[in-house]
Every structure is written in structure tokens, then in C-alpha cells.
Amino acid sequence: MGVQEPTEVFTSTAGAVRWGAVGSGEPVVLLHGTPFSSYVWRDVAAALALRYRVYFWDMPGYGTSEMRSGQRVSLAAQGEVFAELLGHWGLESPRVVAHDFGGAVALRAHLLHRTAYSRLALVSPVALAPWGSPFFRLVGEHTEVFEQLPPALHRALVAEYVGSASAPGLGPGVVDRLVEPWTGAEGQAAFYRQIEQADQAHTDEIQGLYPGLDLPVLLAWGEQDAWIPPERTRELAAMIPGLVTCPIEGAGHLVQLDAPAQLTAALTDFLRG
């Protein structure tokens, strides 16, 4: 079963959100990270759709969703949008699987906006300070310089950055799909906009609440993650009571692309409960 592009549209407070759903059964919602889109979940989503109704979406300012000048795309904005989207879907307590930046979005929606989940799987989540790769922090400090790059240099920079999220390496077709939304005048501006609005305060605000998480939580990560050091993820694991951990050897930050079979197996066991 293939996973289609997110073609449905929901008008959120931060812009038009493209989303899709596949399969049937109890709901599972997938959240992507930055600078990615729902595309990174395509293989895992197809496997989970054999048992569940799988929802996937591109956050405002990402992928196929709306990108525009002045748009709110911060963690705070995305947490609000996710709460709105769950209401639009009519999902009261879905299973949630969230990667990278999406992990913080799911945590903020749950801890601050009181969205209920039956289970929460975090995959290499952005959750503890300090966060952001050295490249991410460099661009964030000099956004006004990087956003003036010629288009060809910008594309090469984004391709190199995206490729560094994988331990074994991404195929050229995959890299092209991940980079494409960030090209053109609109996409290039959106790429630097989401970095400019990245603010560690948005995880500082919830970090002290992690020990109070009162639901089943899985934490999975790649042991060769070059973006979020595995030792920091283990630090997060020590903060959440009753946590199930799943370190995956040979995978980098993009676990769902580096080791889709291992991650799907772990998710299947966890989501089934």
C-alpha cells in the first residue's frame, strides 16, 4: 500500500495545512521534524496503515503546506496548530508518533494545550537544551547573510545539511524530495524563516514537566545520530517515568529512513500495547 501526497487542506491559525490519511483502524498520527516533511514517514506510514488509520501532515511553512512572508512557524505556533488539527479530525486520544522538532510539537500540545494521546512515541526528539546542530545554530545567528545566497548555492547547502541527518547516506532521489520544498524564492525564504524562529525557550518552557508525563512513552533514536547526541537522548530517557527505550544501531537522525524496518517493528509493538 503506497502513501499518497498530503492533498487534503485544513486552514489553521498559521496558514493552510496539507494532510492525508491512509489505512483503517484506530488512529495513529505522524509528526515530522525540521527541515523535513511528512515524506520522511512514507515507508513507516505504509506499514502501519495495514493495522491503523494513519494521519500525516506537513506543518505550516513546510513541505506542501502554505509558506508565506510573516508566517508563524515556531514551536509555539506548531503546537497550537497540532491541537487545532486534532480537533478538526475529531481525534480525542490517538496514538502519536513524532520525530525531531515534531517531538517538541507533540509534547507542547499535550503538556500546554491538554491534547490527549493514548500513547506517544518520540523518535530522536528535540526536547532538551541545548538543541540544534552546529550548522543550525550558525545559520540562526546569521540568517540575514544566508538568505541572500544565490539559489544554486542555497540548494547545495540544504542538500548537504539534509544528507548529514543520515548515517548510511540518502539516495539522490530522496535528497531531492527533501530539498525541493526549500527551493525557489518562496521556499528559500521559508527555509531561513523556520530557523530564524527557532527558540530554545519553547522547550525550556516544558522541560520541567517531562517527569509528570502520565501515558505510555517510547523513545527511539539512532546510535549514530550526528544532530542530537545519543547521550542527550539518554538524558531525556532518565526524566520520563516508565519509558520504553529503543536505540537503533547503524541509524542516524533520520531513523525512519535509515532503519525503517527496525523502527516499524518497535513502533508496531509499542502502539499495539
TrEMBL record:
It comes from Nocardiopsis metallicus. The lineage of its organism: Bacteria, Bacillati, Actinomycetota, Actinomycetes, Streptosporangiales. PANTHER family: HYDROLASE ALPHA/BETA FOLD FAMILY (PTHR43194), PIMELOYL-[ACYL-CARRIER PROTEIN] METHYL ESTER ESTERASE (PTHR43194:SF5). This is Pimeloyl-ACP methyl ester carboxylesterase. Residues 27-260 form the AB hydrolase-1 domain. GO terms for molecular function: catalytic activity. It comes from the Bacteria.
